[in-house]
Amino acid sequence: MIIRKSSPPTVGTGIQLKRTAISVAVAASLSGAVHSQPGDADSIEEVVVTGYRKSLEDAMNYKRNNYGVVDAINAEDIGKFPNTNLAEALQRIPGVSINRVNGEGSQITVRGFGPDFNQVTLNGRSLPTADVPVVGGGTDGQGTSGAGRAFDFSNLAADGIQTLEVYKTGRANVASGGIGATINVVTRRPLDNPGLQAAISAKAIADTSVDRGDSVTPEIGGNFSWTNEDETFGIGLVGSFTERDSAAASATSANWNVVTFADFQDFITPDTVLTNAPTDPEALVALPRDSRYHFSEFTGERMNGQLVVQFAPSDRLRMTADYTFAENEAEEERYDVSNWFNRPFTEVVFDDSPVQSTIFLRENADNKGAAMQQTLRATKDELDSFGFNVEFDLADNLTLTFDAHSSEATVKPNAPGGYSRINVGLDMKYAPVDGTLSQAVDYSGDIPIQIIELISTSGNSSLDSAALAALAVDTARAASQVANLRTITQENEIDQFDIRADWELDANSNLTVGANYRSQTNVTDNTAYRQILGNWGAENPGDVEALAGAGILEEFCVSCRFEDFTIGGASLDGNTRNSVVYGVRGNAADIFEALSPAYAAGYNGADPRPLDVTNSDFDEIEEDVLALYVQFSHEFQIAGRNAHLHIGMRYEDTEVSSSTSSLPTARIDWQGNNDFATFASTSAAGLKADTAYDHFLPSVDFELDVTEDVKVRASYSKTIARPRYDNLFASGTVRAPNGPTALAGNLATAEQGNPGLLPLESDNVDVSVEWYFDESSYVSIGLFDKSVRNFVGRETVSESLFGLRDVSSGAEGTRSGAALDLLDAVGADLNEDNLFAATVYIDTLDSIAAAQAEFVANQGADGNILPAVYEQLELDADLSPNADDPLFAIAVNRPLNNRDASIDGVEIQGQHFFGDTGFGITASYTVVNGDVGFNVAGAPDTSQFALTGLSDTANVTLIYEKYGISARLAYNWRDEFLSNTNDDSGFNNPIFVEEYGQVDLSIGYEITDQLSVSFAGINLNEESSRNFARSRTDMQFLRENAARYYLGLRYKF
């Protein structure tokens, strides 16, 4: 804050500021910058507020002088926004919470409505959205597609942003789509800031998580704005570049199966040791398919640019042309160490959750190895927006505005070969020479503990050492399994035209009428590939280095990268349990490039194994929206107090066309115990569906100045939000089961869209009271209620698709059915290995008797197929369905408009500066409630509807700004919330996100009026993220998030 002496300004008399719809925004942006204080007749002490305090004052006055429920965040100066990330800036607005990707704010939730239900505009224009969240995803990103309407704020740098406006109530002149809120990103305009203004900045980013990348990376930006002396012509230019390297350790458990305890008997034997098991055979229990540790290394580059040209040849005419560009490249290399449960279990411990989860699992691992997937994910996001605007004053009280823009957002694959994701499965077989090997996972803590236990039989230490050596990681023994690849492209285009007339009817009344046309097209192209390399049995140990060369892999301790969680010891000792800690790391693209041609040609005497297409969908959604709107504003008095009434009506007519061209799934093969592969048809199938709907969207806002400092508001509006694109897709995607369907808990699943879905419709009521008790201080409390219709629920039905047949059904009269009888006859355990082996024998031998004899000949003392024999069978045989096999009973999940719900809440916010001390505080707290929650004890074969994203949020910022120092310490918190009602596992499992709180620090110092330095620390408390399913035991995703620091220098010309 700067205090200086000046002469009193010359002010005219009789001038009244009318808070009209046109003037409010201008008045709000200018108010609060200068406050006069009493002084003598010749000199007045003028307090000019600058910096962060000015930004808060501008935002406060914007809120105070606007209508409806509005919040804003303003830039402190040219090229100086309060936060480096727009999403993280928005989270300090009450009711706004954010999602983070790779530790950085990405998308926002407002009043419980997730990113897909909030409209984002750029200077009032609808922005296209394209987002393929492959990089930084939870499990494998295999099924991710460009399917949502959410805008990723991490694509936009903060340098060129003047204001973020958040409208929580509907407005007739604002495009529909924001049922939670509409966020308008306002960029700088040169004629609004006359003269020459320029600033350059440079920052060094230090991310404490970096392993092999650059520990310090650059961020540079520049702003330039110029107008001629007559202020009739101006040019604005903004540019920025950011590079960031980071890393993160994470853990996942894929597909928590939910079955009855009676069906759970398929996964155990009479000798299995059970602890705390249910007594009711119909009680539901949950068990995981696997447990994985990951370590990911990220690289990212972001470029932004803006060009604005303005020309005002007269006081009545202003023309603006602008172009905005954003490009964001993101890449992730990920290395896994994981296990996979083949069953039966030898020991199981259950917890006491409503659906009892297996808190500890152990099984024999003599025929297993360490799975070490290598993954590369890479995408490139681009945004191009061209706009043209003309404002013409037809008369002193009538302004005509024409606005047009054409914008495109794209996400394209950016990994070598044109892929979005490359995953190569590797395996290293355990081969102990003395003792029994078992694998286990302990879920009793926040993170699962993977355990490999060697139980010595001889007590001979030399033999134990040999056995332990066989378990050690040796890159020369690494063997390939299967490669999965995917390409995903999303293109979203918008062409929009708007014409509006603003008419000042008299000193107290204004009328706005307008028409808007928007044509939007979203195209998603999603293709999955698979190539069998060394197969699931890893038949060619050493093939990776043999084909790609020594040095392609390096020994790597994955679990050593966890800093906040204790994983276990770093070695294996006889009779001692320790976690799996070591794996390998290598570049998945390089590995695939070396191995793929060799296996396609027939490596090591095998038949050729080409790269196959397993699924391919091309989906296009076209939306044409014609809107007409009218808005009337009137200022009057009630009992001598100023009052304002704003009444609006928006009519929208929407036509939607959904078309698809896909290669549907042609068959599903059984390739080993729990390994299945889908194969796409070679003939494309097309489908098109059209729908149309219209809406009347009224809005009423009323404000009353109870006193000079107290304002009350009441608003009603009707808003809509259109469904996600994937819910509108006409295509369907089939996923193979996680194991033979003859055994409990294994289902083939499918996702299909519904082109006939209608938008969500919400009737919104808001009431608030605001007290502006000082120049920079206020408190407010607001109540809101939303009654929402047409929520998109889900239905899961069991049906056949595309004529697919199930080779593993166990049905009578089939090969797998005969295999069940065979296993019963020979007294073998009913598990995946035995069932696959018996089915192969029946498929390949002349008779069931011959198959039974062959199985008995290869049966071990424990009754199971010998491990070595099973491995060879898995290498030699794939089972394809035939006419005797029944049609697959596929759990098909579809969206439909079948739900209504209500959301209500309270928003409390305020800010205060303590006189001239320089100290201040801002804080907010939001409570959000909904009337429909998720029943975690619900049946796994029944889809549920529940309100997602609902959570309480809070933030508090301590501020000091004086003597050139500007410091802020902020804490942002979000309570636990439900993020999804179906994790696509086939068991209708929810995804809950645990509460998250983050501490950030920002310090700046003005060395001179032109030169300043800054320091920022993000996530100083290094808070981790964790998701779970039906209980906290059922961990789905956990990630450690490290702190990162910014050191910057800024020069203003």
UniProtKB/TrEMBL annotation:
Pfam families: Plug (PF07715), TonB_dep_Rec_b-barrel (PF00593). One of its GO terms (cellular component) is cell outer membrane. Residues 484-1020 form the TonB-dependent receptor-like beta-barrel domain. Residues 66-180 form the TonB-dependent receptor plug domain. It is found in: Cell outer membrane. Keywords: Cell outer membrane, Membrane, Receptor, TonB box. It comes from the Bacteria. InterPro entries: Beta-barrel_TonB, Beta-barrel_TonB_sf, Plug_dom, Plug_dom_sf, TonB_rcpt_bac. Belongs to the TonB-dependent receptor family. PANTHER family: PLUG DOMAIN-CONTAINING PROTEIN (PTHR40980), TONB-DEPENDENT RECEPTOR-LIKE BETA-BARREL DOMAIN-CONTAINING PROTEIN (PTHR40980:SF3). This is TonB-dependent receptor. It comes from Exilibacterium tricleocarpae.
